[in-house]
Design brief:
With 421 residues, the chain is α/β, with parallel strands linked by helices. Helices cover 58% and strands 8% of the residues. The chain contains 19 helices and 7 strands. A hairpin with a 5-residue loop joins strand 4 and strand 5. Helix 15 crosses helix 19.
Length: 421
Amino acid sequence: MKENSRILIKLLSKAIRNQEPDWDEITALLEASQIHWPTLYEEALAHQVHTLIYPMVSKLKNINPSLAPDPTLLSQWKKETQTEAIRQIQQVQIIKEILKAFYKEKIPAIVLKGLLLREYYPNPDLRTMGDADLLTHAQDRYRIKKILKQFNFIENKVSNKHISYINKNHPFIIEVHTWLSDSHPDDFSIDFEKALWKDTINISLLGAPTMALSVDHHLLHLIIHMKNHIISAGFGLRQLCDFVVFMEANEKELNWDYILRCSQQLQLKTFMISLFLLCNQLFDLKIPRQVTIQEADSSETLKDQRYLDLFVRDILDSGVYGRRNPDRPMSSLLIRYSKPDHPSGRFGRVKKMLQFYFPSSKNLSNRYPYAKKYPFLLIFAWFHRAFTNLSRIGKYKVSPQAEKLSQERVKLLQWLQIQKH
């Protein structure tokens, strides 16, 4: 791990707990590393945690001016933090009125992710939130659409698990989910979704009556969400911070027998243990006794520090949702459309490229549902896909860096046991 990243994580670890850092230690680290503040700022911005550490960084100009960021950078940082805080205030006010409208119309809605997690932070408005997530019943989608239209939201994207709405006046998105656990329901995930609704908690959020997941289901949802993102592109430090503040606030209320049983059924157990190991290493998060027992019973491979280091590198390289490194989107496509057991050399590369440009119906995205339903239309779907992406042809050029990254990420996903061998 580079020194800039190490210092960023140390500052974050204190900021999310509202603790004053050991300034002698921080000063010694800054002096020893010859920190380059623009690089640290870029990394914090890429992970959307720049706002969380700004109050702490701004104190350096009074503690040791020679080690503080350049005044121009600090001014830019301050302006960005203030702008983001104002945007968060505006967004939560919109959500507040929408939740009140849902309640008035008797539309059940469960608030998810950032809307709740921000409340665990010392200053909620400094925890950035790009969109708002709600879990609702599928049969309410037309009534929901009607209410959101009243607040200037229009339908944006539709998937098999959620519909996103974008505000015509603000860069603000609301994702309305109808399913959390898996894209392909089985008996257990169906029962799990029923349990989510049965075990909800009535709360008042931002002054509006609504519902939240139980702490057990909220933790499982956080893990599911991170798992989905690391498969698709990646996740960053902000998601780890969310995990840490949630765990430290709720550790005594969690039913570990239920959580471990569900994590096993949802194929999350290894990933969950790895998350605890990672957050313990980076943020000194206490690992629950029940998880420690599971770790002791797990294979030696899971305890291999080399893979944990690979996990750290992947998260730092990812940024908030896999957007930091320009090679990541292509590496994610290579992982999606090709198999991890390809032979090495030219033949293996040709085979990988053929599967990328001519994927099976199973690996095609949900934009081509007809090919999934009627496999004989697969050839037509390939032409459809090619025509659709003509304007983005540059993005479909496979660089050696993207290939190498995809190979590293396949190893990581296999270690986490969330990628099929």
